[in-house]
Design goal:
By secondary structure, the chain is mainly beta. Helices cover about 0% and strands about 60% of the residues. The chain folds into 2 domains: about 10-90, no CATH class; about 95-255, no CATH class. The protein has strands at about 1-5, 10, 15-20, 25-40, 45-50, 50-65, 75-85, 90, 95-100, 105, 110-120, 125-135, 135-140, 140-145, 145-155, 160-170, 175-180, 185-190, 195, 200-205, 210-215, 215-220, 225, 235-240, 240, 250, 255.
């Protein structure tokens, strides 16, 4: 699991990064470099206009968070870390395909199965997804069917962004999709820890889905989150075909609805 906080800051003439985390404590650090290496961009389809560098070392000083708001309580005087310096990038935009329910899907997702579940919570957005890719041919031979489960929470308030994420790889038996009429209509998920329980997606009509079960997870800052509460909406995709059960105008990852 991972918890992150972000604010806009600025670089001072002496090389100091200055930023304000309103009312939650003090972060006053200096960076001691111990190593350096060339790095490459991780953005698929992008190339750097020059060499990128990663500087390894340690941050020393004071990290003190008082536990107010959406922050945890922390007091440390050092932490290992790195600084990544990247030149401008040039990226190629991938073509999209339109699917029957009004969205657009990347062509590379034609063999995938995806379940998307989301809701608003405590001023932010909570997303759960299960994703499976069919077996294929890779550099090392046959690549087996892979299944991943992830959950993310994102909240922006008074110029500060708080994020909580959790993810795990599972077995193919833990994400089953049924498409008896060529359209995905039912799915069952039972992800491993840190998740607990299971949930079922059932398409009741072309625009209505039932999402039920006892799927849950214990998250930092949020506590135990039940992922099948009535306020969640859900959508199931198989290849380029998705159920039309997302709210109109919703944008989720590679899908745009309501056009």
């Amino acid at each position: 699991m991972h918890v992150g906080y972000g604010v806009h800051g600025h670089l001072t003439p002496d090389g100091t990064i200055s930023a304000k985390f309103r009312g939650i404590g003090v972060v006053d650090l200096s960076f001691r470099q111990t190593g350096e290496r060339r790095a490459t961009s991780e953005d698929e389809g992008c190339t750097n206009d020059g060499p990128a560098h990663s500087y390894q070392g340690a941050f020393q000083g004071l990290i003190k968070l008082n536990g107010k708001g959406s922050f945890g309580r922390v007091e440390r005087h050092s932490a290992p870390g790195s600084i990544f310096e990247s030149p401008p990038e040039t990226c190629v935009v991938e073509k999209h395909h339109r699917h029957p329910s009004g969205g657009e899907v990347h062509s590379g997702l034609a063999e995938s199965q995806t379940l998307l579940v989301a809701r608003h919570r405590q001023g932010g957005s909570l997303f759960f997804d299960a994703s499976a890719e069919e077996p294929g041919i890779g550099l090392g031979g046959v690549v087996p069917r892979g299944v991943s489960f992830s959950l993310s929470y994102l909240r922006s308030h008074q110029g500060m962004t708080t994020s909580v994420t959790a993810g795990v790889l599972g077995k193919s038996s833990q994400f089953k999709v049924s498409s008896p009429a060529g359209t995905p209509s039912e799915a069952v998920v039972e992800p491993p820890a840190p998740f607990a329980g299971s949930a079922t997606f059932k398409l009741e009509s072309p625009t209505v889905a039932d999402w039920s079960g006892d799927l849950r997870i214990d998250l930092p800052l949020l506590g135990e989150v039940h992922l099948t509460e009535p306020s969640f909406w859900s959508m199931l995709c198989e290849g380029l075909t998705c159920t039309n059960t997302a709210p109109p105008g919703t944008e989720v990852g590679f899908l745009t609805f309501g056009e």
